[in-house]
Design goal:
52% of the residues lie in helices and 9% in strands. By secondary structure, the protein is an alpha/beta fold.
């Protein structure tokens, strides 16, 4: 049967997507798949689902076929037994040119996460990496967060339906936004967008922490790295005890810095309004309200006390008025 299926597929000149699900391919079938890939020049997406890869030599053959394929840029490996670390490592060698890559329902464990973290570190093409349903823990999330600091690619990292809780989520967020200092903000990752939740469901997104939502919006926006850093500086200045845009703790900031801070707030508000096309009037109102409440909470007289006229000068003016 295998001798019939793959030659038939080879004759389909227009075949660009291939999904092999619950076929019981086994080692022989996966070797046939490798030979098929070696002779194919059009396939763009391949999904291997519920077909366990047992043999390391088969993984090596498949990895070489993936690496040398000219057009294949999207790969799904779901429930393929990739908790076998040598096999996972061999397959990752062949996926260095993938733009969209999914490793799901494989229970990859800590060693598997470490392999994938190193793969992320060296990859130059990935745009979307899906790792959902792999029993990834908070400790595993720390490993992924650490490697994000060295990655400058613009890509999404889907980590939903794992065992990642508050600790892991905070580590991932800190990799994208570390407000400890100006240097740490600049050195944060400004391109990756990791999700531990279903970001396509507004009701779930609405329940996420405000800072996280702001940072993911910034990282996902089509703007320069410099602009993203500026927006994160705004968050660092305005975020206090989980509340955004509360600037009361900046009362003693130098007067010379005030125009620059207000400019950043205005720019951030304008960018938020522009980024969402629905309800533009409401968003513009929200942006203005944010600026209004910022100024109201600020103890502005403290900023201008150095500009107050000296008592002597004030006295002279009063005397001059009296003479008149």
């Amino acid at each position: 049967m295998l001798d019939t299926i793959f030659p038939a597929l080879q004759s389909m000149n227009s075949l660009i997507n291939l999904a092999l699900t619950r076929n019981g391919l086994g080692s022989e079938g996966l070797l046939h798949l490798s030979h098929f890939l070696n002779g194919n020049t059009r396939l763009q997406k391949l999904a291997i689902v519920n077909n366990v890869i047992h043999d390391l030599s088969v993984a090596d053959s498949l990895s070489n076929a993936l690496l040398n394929h000219a057009t294949l840029k999207r790969l799904v490996l779901s429930n393929c037994g990739l908790n076998n670390i040598p096999i996972l490592g061999e397959l990752l060698k062949g996926c260095t040119r993938m733009e969209k890559f999914a490793i799901t329902r494989n229970d990859i464990g800590s060693e598997g996460v470490s392999l994938i973290a190193n793969w992320i570190r060296s990859n130059k093409t990935i745009m979307f990496l899906q790792l959902h349903s792999n029993k990834i823990t908070d400790d595993n999330a720390l490993v992924l967060a650490s490697v994000l600091k060295y990655n400058s690619l613009r890509f999404e990292l889907n980590l939903r339906d794992n065992y990642i809780n508050e600790g892991g989520e905070k580590a991932l967020l800190k990799a994208l936004y570390d407000p400890t200092s100006m240097d740490s903000i600049v050195e944060s990752n400004h391109t990756c967008v990791p999700y531990t939740h279903d970001y396509k469901k507004p009701a779930i997104v609405a329940q996420r922490p405000p800072i996280e939502k702001e940072v993911l919006i910034i990282n996902n926006d089509e703007i320069s790295i410099k602009q993203k850093i500026r927006r994160k500086v705004v968050l660092a200045l305005c975020g206090l005890d989980g509340e955004l845009f509360d600037l009361s703790h900046l009362n003693d900031l130098s007067l010379q810095l005030m125009p620059h801070v207000l400019e950043l707030i205005q720019e951030h508000s304008w960018a938020r309004t522009k980024s969402v096309k629905s309800m533009p009037l409401q968003l513009e109102k929200d942006a203005l309200s944010r600026l209004f409440h910022t100024l109201r909470r600020w103890e502005l007289p403290l900023l201008f006390e150095n500009l107050s006229p000296k008592k002597g000068a004030a006295g002279k003016r009063k005397r001059r008025k009296t003479r008149r």
